[in-house]
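Q: Cd(2+)-exporting ATPase, please. Structure only.
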Amino acid sequence: MIAKINQHKNQITWISGTLIIAAILSKLFHLSGLSNSFLIIATVIAIVPIAIKAWQAMIMRTFSIELLVFIAVIGAVFIQEYTESAVVTFLFLLGDYLEARTLEKTRSSLKELVDMAPQEAILLHADGSREEIDIDLVEEGNRLVVLPGGKIPVDGRIVKGHALINEAAITGESIPANKAENDRVYSGSILDNGYIEIIAEKVGEDTTFAKIIELVEEAQESKSSAERFLDRFANYYTPAVVILSLFVFAFTRDLHLAITFLVIACPGALVIGAPVSAVAGIGNGAKNGVLIKGGDIMEKFAKVDTLVFDKTGTLTKGKPTVTDFHNLTSMPTRKLLALIAKAETISEHHLGQTIVKEAEKNGIDLSRFQITESEAIKGNGITATVDGYSIVAGNRKLMNGKGIKINSGASLYAIEREKAGNTAIFIGINGELAAIISIADQIRDDAKAALADMRANGVKRIIMLTGDNRHTAEAVANELGMDEFHAELLPNEKVEYVKKLKDQGAIVAMAGDGINDAPAIATADIGLAMGEGGTDVSMETADVVLMADKLSQYAHAFALSKATIRNMRQNIFIALAVVVILLLGVLADQVHLAGGMFIHEGSVLVVILNAMRLIGFKTKIASEAGKTDGRQREKLVA
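A: Structure for Cd(2+)-exporting ATPase:
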C-alpha cells in the first residue's frame, strides 16, 4: 500500500492542486460549504504521503521536515484554516516533485554515462559466421566484430583492422583516436569510421567503462564534511523548532502563529544545498573525463596549495623514444640491443618498455632469447641473465652498486645527452660498461598553460620529484617554471618528501602514473593519477583520476573543486538567510502560512538551480582545449 502511494505521489500532487482550484472557483460563486469540502479533501489526500515519510523517519529515530509539516497541517485543520492546510500540503508535494526533477538534471552526466553502456556485441565464430549476442554473454577470449557506428562492447585488443574511435565516454576527449592492430580499445567507445575485430580481455563489471560508472555512483553518494554536519544539524534542528513553536504558542496563545513558525522554520533548502552542489560538481567532472571520488575529496582538493608531480608520463607525454644507441663494445649493435631488450621485458617502467619497443621496431624476435635470472630494482633499473650474458641496465647508482666503472669519456657523453633533454640509460655486460642508450620524452603540450591556470587559482608551490637524472629534470623544470625539483629519487624517497611537505603545513596533491608512484600518491592529501583509459591501479589508489592523460583536465578538476565548494557555501547562505528573514516576518505578523510556504519551497528551487550552474562549468583552459580539439576533429573528418 505504502509503495503504491509513493509510486503515485505525482498524481496525488496534481489531484490536490485541482481540488484547490475547484475550491477557489466555488468560493467565487459563494459556495463556501462546497469550497471547504474541496479544501478538506485536498488536505486529506495530500497529507497521506507526507504522513508516511514522517512515520518512517520516526521509526528510524530521526526528526524529518515531513514531521514538521504534518504537525502544522493537523494544527491548521484544528483551527479550521482549511485554505492554508490544503495549500501547505500541495506546495510541499509540488516542491518535492520539482526538487526531484531538478536533481535528476544534476545527475544527468551519470545518466548519460549509463545510457552509453553497450547492450549487445557481435560474436565472430571460428567458421567466420557472426552472431549478435547480449553483452552479458560475452566471455574473455571471445573474438568480436565492431562495425562503423557501433559501440565497443568490452575492453580488448585489436587483432584485425583499423578505425577512428571516439573515446569521449572514457576520456572526455572529443578527437577520435586512430587505432590499429595490437592497440587497446575500451568498452563504451564508439567506432566512428573503419572496421575492427577484437579479442575480449575484460568483460562485464571488469571493464573500464563499468568501473567509471561505479566510481561516479559511489562518489555522488559520498558526503563532504559540510554535508555530514548538515545531516547532524537537521537531527537537532527539527526537534528544536518544535520546542520553539511551543514556546511561541505559550507566550502568544496564538496557535496560528505557532503553526506558521513551525512550517517556515523547515530547513529544506539548508539540508539539500550542499549535496546537490556536490552531485553537480562530480557530474561535471565525469562529463569532462575527470573522476573525483566524492564530496569529501572535492572539499579537500579545493584547499590544496602545493602540487607535486612525477615527470615521466605526468609532465611529459609518457611516450619516450630511443634517440641514440652508443655502442661501446665490439659486439654487433643489433645483438646488443636484442640482449638488452630481452632483459628489459621484466620491467614495467616507461624507459624499459621503450627499449623493448625499439627492438621490436627493428624486427628483432625477442622470443629467441632466454632469461634465466632477473630482478627489477625500483628506481634504479634491472639486472638479468640473458643467454648466459650478465646484464645490468639502469642509472649511475646501479652501475656504482654493481661495480661497473664509467670512464670520463662515457660520463661526459652521458651528461651532454642529458643536458639536451635525454635520459641516459647505462648498460653493463659481464661487469663492463657496454652501451649508453639515450631516450627522450616530450613535455605535454598543455602542461605550461595548465600549471599557470592552477597558480592563478591559488596554488603556491609546484614541485617535481623524479627518479630521472638531474640534468634532464632541470631542463624540464626550467621549461615549465617549477618552483623546485628533486631528481634521482627512489619511490620511498618521494614518499618521504611528500611527508616532509605535509609536516610543514602544506596541503599536497601528488600526481603520478598510478603504478610506480602509488606510495607517494597514497601519502599525499590528494592523490591524482594519470593513466590513459584508467589503469586498475590508478582508479583504485588515487582520489582523482584523469582519464585522458591531459594536464588541462587537472586544471579543470582543481578549478571545479573550488567552484563546487564556493557553490555549497552560497547555497548554505541562501538557505539560512531565507529562514531567518521568514521567521522575523512571521514574528512581525508580516508573513503568513501559505505565503511563507511558497517562499520556502522557492528557496529550495533556488539552491538547486544555483547548483545546476556547475553542470556547465568550464575553465578557460578547458574551453581553449575544446576549440583546439574541434579544429583537429574537423581536419580528421575532412
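A: Brief note, in case it's useful. The mean pLDDT is 82.
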